[in-house]
Every structure is written in structure tokens, then in C-alpha cells.
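Bug #77: duplicate submission created two jobs. Keeping one. Sequence:
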Amino acid sequence: MSNTPGYHGSYLRIDLSAGTMTNVPLAAETLRNFLGGVGLGTYLLLAEGVAEHDALAAEAPLIYVFSPLVGSPLTTSAKFAVVSKSPLTERINDSLASSAFAIAGKKCGCDAIVVVGRAAAPSVAVIEDDQLRIEPAGDVWGLSSRATEDALRERLGGDYQIASIGPAGERQVHYATISHDGRHAGRGGSGAVMGAKQLKAIAVRGTRRVAWHDSKALIALSKDLSQRSFGPATAKYRELGTASNLLTFNRLGTLPTRNFQQATFEHAAAISPEQLTATREKTRASCAACTIGCEHIYAFGGSGASSDGLLQKDAGVRLEYENLFALGSLCGVSDPDQVLAASRRCDELGLDTISAGGTIAFAAECVERGLLDVPWLVFGDGDAVLRALDEIVAGTPLGQQLALGSRRLAEQIGHDAIDFAPQVKGLEIPGYEPRTLQTMALGFAVGTRGADHNRSSAYEVDFSEAVDRRDVQPHEARLAVDIENRAALLDSLVLCKFLRRALEDFYGEAAEMLQAVTGWDITAAELEATAARIVAAKKLFNIRAGWRPEEDTLPRRFLEQPLPDDEQTTLGAERLAQLVTAYNSARGWTSEGWIEPVQQASLGLSEL
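Kept job's structure:
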């Protein structure tokens, strides 16, 4: 067991079938090689050795992972990762959430919690320090995550932190979320994995703290980082949040509209944060241990304000760019109240907004083409979106189809519907048009969890002067590698990605933080190698789960069909294949993206 500062040196492994928990040591070398968060979670997922099993099988692990920085005074460090095999993609899934659950979970004396097995009945796992008890969850089964948290705190005590699923997770919707305090581990269906285990919630409370190697240096670094988090690098998140991107993306022709049939939305202004801020009550909030304050909560439907005129957090709707895009422009909905209501409904039900909106928008186009007989499901109808969300969780015949995501729905429909299903590896594409953001298109294609803007964020390259975003060249694929590595490191430390522009010497400053916390003589070069190792480990899991090179692509719509308002721009299958080959070459993999045994050994993965 490691005695490295910042770590407990072990993880808790819960077997719900047996109702037992064991404390499993973690070697110091493992911690240094994989850090925490997504990196350590991927290592533990590989170590379980069940990559080929169904994501919803009892033996499939669901892993909550903390990091050496959790509990430290570093801003945005109160985050945890949830790692599992995705029921939506059957590939690796890693989602992150910011909340006090991370701090309380680590105080239970562990660096991660691995959950396997399946409870005999709906249950709550209660962990206090390193002790486990399983309690019945029949009284909260069917409730939203927020209502579940409230009920369990009343039962257990107000100082418990609780991660739970909503009705979508219970129903095993393939893109159900895990939530805590209004924040969500959203993409890829980790909530469905939890629901398949009949686990409604995990409640944690602990007293075990870790030591810091150099508290004085850590406090100084924390103060400096906090000051920078108030600066221009994060200003837009404080002012309007991530939703501030919407009008800019629309102006640049990169706002996906009506299932990616267009890249501009004629009603974008109506659902923009500028308009919402001007017409309704709004308040700001911060995640636990965060100084940025990017959370923007809006009132809707004439409700949400208290007698003193202040908006109550649990009465409003937290809006992100992805909510506005997926439930607004992608579905052609321009009524802001309907978009807000749909976002609120997703939160209550426990649905990932991107996959929910993407699947509904795809179904609407199938209706438009005469491939699906659901006459009420049409673009621009916000009530239809709300009805579809309810049917997904109610399990109606249509809802059961939608609950599987756009790829499986396309496979059921046939007639080449897969050509315009908005997904990569089964994960719905977020709000970035691949034809006009071609570095991002590459990031989507090669992403280990599918189309994902958080594990790549290559749109930053496209919006810079480093490339022509409409004509990215193969030699520029290395830029996608670099930005993917940086994301992997942030997701393993774990720190919020909104800090990335505040870190002038990214790897060097990250090394300083880890030195102060752990005492390691770690360098920027070592951390860059660690980031590459973590990406390779995720790829290795996918290979063992059945990945094939032909998965690293985009639907034909994005390769062959130009946009109506940008007919000169095409991506093309040949160009994308060239970019993918160049990406793999830059990583030192084979041209098809395989990780050979000798490369596994050099990355410290051979024992897995």
C-alpha cells in the first residue's frame, strides 16, 4: 500500500451480489503512472479484466475515482470521475462531475470505489470511512436525483454526500446520468450501469484525511491559481457561462441545426444567453471548491423567484451551451421556455442532454423522410421534445427505441438511416459542426469514448490561427494529439478544463502542483508521457472490448454532404482517413491505431 502524500494508497471494492466490501492496496508506481480520475479509473477497469462483457452485466465494474488533488485548496479540485464500459457505445466511458461528493468520498479513506455485482433489490450503498452497509431504496426508487438526495439525507444525516440516479437510470436508458447536487456525470450511460446493478445511490461520509508533502508551497500555488481564475482566461464563463458560445458559433456557421442538416439557426438569438439574461431572473453559482462561478441558473415559466426576488437554485434551470444546442437548434426549437423546460426535464429524469437531443433530432428527420411513423415528432415543436423525453423514461414502444440512442435506432430503422445518425461509436455528436471544424472532426473520429468535445476540445485549434478549419491538413493532426493529451491530464488530476487557459506553462505548472501534494520529483516531460499513457490505456480497453479501425470515422453525411450555406466546404472520407492515419502516426501507433505489445510495455501497460 502506498504512503504517498495526497493518496490513501488503496481503493474500496464493493460486491453488491455478496453485500461485501474489501480494501485493495494500490502500488505507488501505479499511482504515479495513472495519477487519479480518468487515468486511475482506466487502469482499474483494465485490471478487472472484463472488457468483453456486456456493459450492463453484473460483473461489469462501475468505478468512482478521486485524485491526489481532491481535498486540497487548489481551485476546481473537487471533482470525481466515473469510469465504466458504456452501454451506449460498448467502449470505454469516463464522465466527470464537480461536487462535494469527491471530497467526502476521498475522506472515506480511499482513492477510488469499484462497484461490481447486482443487488437483489433496489439499494443504497452507505459508506462511512471504510465501513459499508446496504440499505433498501424502495422508498426512493422512481424519484429524481435531487429528491433522492433530500430523502436520503433526512434518513441518514445531512452531512452525507450522495451520488444517485433518476428514473432514466432505473429504466437503464443507455444515456442515463449519475447526479449529485445538480451536477451530472453525464455522457455514455453510467447511470444505466448503476441502474442495472439496482443501485439507486451511493452515500459517503468520512473522517480520513491525507497529508500534503509541502503545505506551504501548495497554499501559495493555490492562491496564485485562484487569482488567475478570476482573470480574462475565464471571464466568459463568469459572465454568460458556456452558453456564451451559441451566437458566435451561429455566426461562424458551426451551430448544428435540425440534426446537422444546417449549421446556422435562424432563431438562435431567441434562445441565446444574452436574450435569456435580458428577459428573466438569473443567478450564478459555483461548484464545490471553485472560484470561477460558471453556473448560470435561469427562471422559466414565471416561477423560481422567492419573496425577496432572488432566484432559488433548485427552482431554476442550469444552462450550458450543450443544453441550448441539443434541445434547441438541433431540434429546431426556438421557444426559450420550451428549451428551458426540456433541460429541466432531463435533469429531473437523469438524461444526458446531448444524447437525448441528438436521438430525438435524428428521429424527427426520420419522420420527415417517412422512415418513422410518429407524426407528432417534428422539428420546431418543443412540446414534442418534452413528450419524447417522457416516453423515453416511461418505456413506451417509441421510448424504448429512443432510449437506445441514435445508432441503435438507425440500425432498427434501416434504409441507410445510419448515414445521418449523429453519432460516432454510438455516442451522439456534441454542438460542433464537423464539416467546418475539421480538427474537431478528427477528434470526434478517434475519440475513445466516441464523439466528444471534452476529451479532445480540438475546436480550440480550429478557432485559432494554427489551421484553416475548413481545410485541415494531415501534418496538422499532431495538434489534435496534443490537445487530447492535455485533456487526459486534466481529467486525471482532476481539475476543471476551464482553467486550461489560465495555465501558461501547462505541464510545468501541473508538475509543480503534484510536487507540492505528493513530493514526487516529477517533471513536465514525465507528465506529458503520463498523459499519452492514459490515452493509450483507454485505447487498449477499447481494443479488448472489440474495437476495429473502421470505427474511427464519421457518418456519411459529414463526409459526402456539404452544408447548404457552405457548399464549398467538404471533409471527405479520403481526407478524414489521412487525418486519422497521421494522428495514429503522431501517437506512435500503427496506421490502423493498434497498440502493439512492445508499445504497451513502453507505456507501462504490459501488465494489464
